[in-house]
Amino acid sequence: MFYRSRLQASAALASLTLLAGCGLLSDSGSETEQRISVGTTSSPSTLDPAAAWDGSWELMRNVFQTLVSFPTGSTSPEPDAAEECGFTDSSSMAYRCTLRPGLKFSNGDKIDAETVKYSIDRIKTIKVKGGPAGLLGSLDRVETKGDDEVIFHLAKADATFPFILATPAMSIVPPGEYPADRIRDDGKVTGSGPYVLDSYEQGKQAELTKNPGYKGFADRKNSAVTIRYFDDSEPMVEALKSKEIDATYRGLTAEEVIGLEDNKKDNNGLQIVESVGADIRFLVFNPKDPAAGKLAVRQAVAQLVNRDALVAKVYRGTAEPLYSMVPKGIAGHATSFFDTYGDPDVAKARELLSEAGITAPVKMTFWYTTDRYGSSTATEFAELKRQLEASGLFRITLRSAPWKSFQEGFNKGAYPVFGRGWFPDFPDPDNFVAPFVGQDSVTGTPYLSNEITRELLPSSRKESDRGAVSDQFKRAQDILVKDVRLLPLWQGKLYVAAGEDIGGGERALDPQTVMQMWELYRKTSW
Predict the structure, then answer these.
(1) Which residues are the signal sequence here (predicted)?
(2) For residue 260, what is the enclosing H or E element?
(3) Which sign does the torsion angle of CA 432, 435, 438, 443 carry?
């Protein structure tokens, strides 16, 4: 997950304004003494920030604090647990933060500079495969001065480091409850964020209540939040229609979005709001697989995939074709895959295989997850199978697994080809390239490209003007096209559905597309 351009993030926030005018009567008569219920199909894979580089951030943003974060309306990191932060030099090699005074965890433990150092160091020490340690590649060491000053010394220039510190993976945790060398796995959370996690049932729901000791920027407009996790979007939408939940976030299918938009009179006044999205979907090829490890096979797949048909049949206008790993709206976006392969062409694909001495049909297994990216994923992979097999060049077997076991599988290198989604950590092209390359790729499949990791990324990270890094990332995308280790498929739009009684949705999404639950409230009157 990483950054989107400033303008795009602002547009994403602005596009949610329709939710502002909706609301239900509150029993309490107060906007701050109420519980809001939100449904999602994206449940946490972990409760420990040191292991989280996925949708787990949704919960973490609301129960933990980071040194810097994105206050509502901001598209640049600003102090949260910190009182002030900034680079101490012009070369972006040292970043210093001074803590707010009087910070405490929900268990009463004090937060000081050593606590912050401990929290960051354990991420690198534990180094969960596919986890957030990959975000800290530029960090050399963490220094403390006194109780309130933390200095991050970087091994190389990295103008994106403040954005990395703003991710929920960099949440501050109490040393007494989070081991230095292993993940906390007791199903509990101790943080200093806007809410306290009162109870948690994996895959079912999380109960949050306002943290009375919280000191930060969040202006909480409700007193409690229930997050309900659904395996499928259909029961989630039914729960919304029957007012069992107040809003949904992540997981609506194209049919459900269109149904809610077209049948407002029959949906009890439900609101459906579209925002600009930078989330992407792509295929990952495992180079150790006998078939996927052959360049000509990967090239042939790239030559055959019909993104227009995929989007039209499966997503019905709620997504758009993507021809680079950097989506539209982000500096450095290109159409590299289209420029190289053009429209789908069976004859060209057959020629690629023939020239490599590969006999068709090529047998391959494609894996996807059943409960992370919405209910349309199965239909999407069925369409990919249909397209590839219609050429006569491939025989595709489809396999699926729930996210937790799916994640374990791809981190072990068990899948020949698999589908991944990416929700940006921050609005910057770095986040759509860097996480997927290197030995510690977030895909779990190492992708070594010296030009990208040793030249292009370091060069771009010296540039504080993030709009001036297009050349480096266009070159990086040329390399990605040549290797075809990653195959971009589509770029999504983000939809939030809510009852007519809920306000605050226009302010609820930060630039990381993480929902800030404290912005939602039930209106007492129109």
Answers:
(1) 1-20
(2) helix 254-262
(3) negative
